[in-house]
Design brief:
This protein has helices spanning 15-37, 42-69, 75-98, 104-131. It is an all-alpha fold. The radius of gyration is 15 Å and the shape is globular.
Length: 133
């Protein structure tokens, strides 16, 4: 069972953004499945976390550039939410590296599923509605 199910309320109306969001959710779901089945090595898990971090960082950078170009009114709040997720991901990566994450799967579930559900259906919908995408 996937960690994050795509929901209609996640749709921003911008097909390319929605596709990127689906791909990010796919990566997170793949990692969740690997962790759930306990079939990866520690290095493979670290690589997967690094890939997720890289993809999300790139997506956020493009979205933030668009917000700056369009002089988006809630840029600061939206970027703060991006920064919060990246901090959470770094905490997960650090915890994995040091072996201090005994329940990594549960931490992923609690942090990422909740973050994506709220972020997509609030911040991203507001952004793309205002920009007319």
């Amino acid at each position: 069972m996937p960690l994050i199910e795509w929901k209609d309320e996640f749709n921003t109306g911008n097909p390319s953004i929605d596709q990127e969001h689906r791909e990010l959710i796919g990566l997170i779901n793949d990692l969740h499945e690997i962790l759930r089945k306990n079939v990866s090595t520690s290095d493979e898990t670290a690589d997967f976390l690094g890939e997720i971090y890289s993809q999300i960082s790139a997506h956020f950078a493009l979205e933030e550039q668009l917000m700056r170009e369009e002089k988006y009114e809630d840029y600061t709040g939206h970027k703060t939410d991006h920064d919060r997720l990246l901090d959470d991901l770094r905490d997960i990566m650090d915890g994995h590296h040091t072996g201090s994450f005994e329940s990594m799967e549960q931490d992923l579930s609690n942090q990422l599923e909740q973050w994506f559900s709220v972020h997509f259906s609030t911040f991203d919908i507001k952004l793309h509605n205002q920009l007319g995408h």
